[in-house]
Amino acid sequence: MSNLPSYDELPVRDGAPAGSSWGLWGEGDVFGCLNLLTPERVVAAARLVQSGAVFALNLEAELPDPPLFGRAAPQHTVLGEGAGHDDVLTFNTQSSSQWDGFRHVAGRDGFYNGVSDGDHGTHHWARRGIAGRGVLVDVARHVDVAPDGANVIETADLDATLASQGVTLEPGDVLLLRTGWLAWYRTLDGAARAAVAADLKAPGIRPGHDTARWLWDHHVAALAADNPAVEVWPLAGTFGHWDFLALLGIPLGELWDLDALAADCAADGRYSFLLTSAPLNVLAGVASPPNALAIK
């Protein structure tokens, strides 16, 4: 863990795809960069709790409405009469706040680490749990990003934001990227939200090797954002999910609700915190609501 290869030194296993971390944590590894969330780093992250303020980062399950990318809207049915009820929820795990699991996207050479499709699943993450140091990168507050357009966020923008916030990234950080897209979306009426779903444009990070290099060389454990795809949409050339998920094993979170957390971070100047996440324990799950908390 203390001597990780740089991006330009990848891969470490003969025959692995270029720019991949395959084999770094063993042939059957299904955790990827979550391996960086060591017990020591969890303990260090717990020491960041000072005020006891808790921020739930899941968006309402009913948003976006209508869902993006043609996904189905959740269906909630309440059963029973009188003094007791059950309820049944049918939903697409990627229709609202989510983790993209390693089954979500296969690169040109297959799923992360060359592990077969059926052997991946968010249940691995759920049974381990996700906890560590979270760091908010509030690009929306420090860089001029238009939330209603396909604005590309460059690695230089990430560096400038971190410098403005006075934050230095550490290996194993879970990076939370605020683009401002979700705050803008909340201002829209129903007709405008339907128009967004029909012709989605959203700011996000630039896909490609330069961004992959930046993320890897900072050795982030995971990356989550308040926009629909983490990367800019429509795509700017290549598909960044191939590099981030399939090659490097960096879990991606999308549509996370970061606005209240961002306001608190701006108020007290503290942009790092204890982050926890409990994905759904569904065998071989493709994706999951994050059930994430930031605790300051």
Oligomer state of the chains in this structure: single chain
Poorly predicted regions are: none
Strand content: 15-25%
- Secondary structure class reads alpha/beta
The biggest beta sheet reads: 9 strands, mixed
Q: Could you name the CATH class?
A: Alpha Beta
CATH topology assignment: Glucose Oxidase, domain 1
The run of helices and strands is: HEEEEHEHEHEHHEHEHEHEEE
Number of strands: 13
Count of helix runs: 9
CATH architecture: 3-Layer(bba) Sandwich
Keywords:
alpha/beta, Glucose Oxidase, domain 1, 13 strands, two-stranded antiparallel sheet, 296 residues
Note down, in words, how this protein is organized.
The chain has 296 residues and is an alpha/beta fold. It has one domain (8-295): Glucose Oxidase, domain 1. It is 24% helix and 17% strand. The strands form 3 sheets. A 9-stranded mixed beta sheet has the order 1-13-11-5-7-9-10-4-12, sandwiched between helices. A two-stranded antiparallel sheet has the order 2-3. A two-stranded parallel ribbon has the order 6-8. A hairpin with a 6-residue loop joins strand 2 and strand 3 (86-90). The longest helix has 11 residues, at 155-165. The two termini are 26 Å apart.
Helices and strands, with pairings:
Layout: H1 39-46, E1 54-56, E2 75-79, E3 86-90, E4 98-100, H2 122-128, E5 130-137, H3 139-142, E6 152-153, H4 155-165, E7 174-177, H5 181-186, H6 190-198, E8 204-205, H7 209-217, E9 222-225, H8 240-247, E10 252-254, H9 259-268, E11 272-277, E12 287-288, E13 292-295
Parallel strand pairs: 5-7, 6-8, 7-9, 9-10
Antiparallel strand pairs: 1-13, 2-3, 4-10, 4-12, 5-11, 11-13
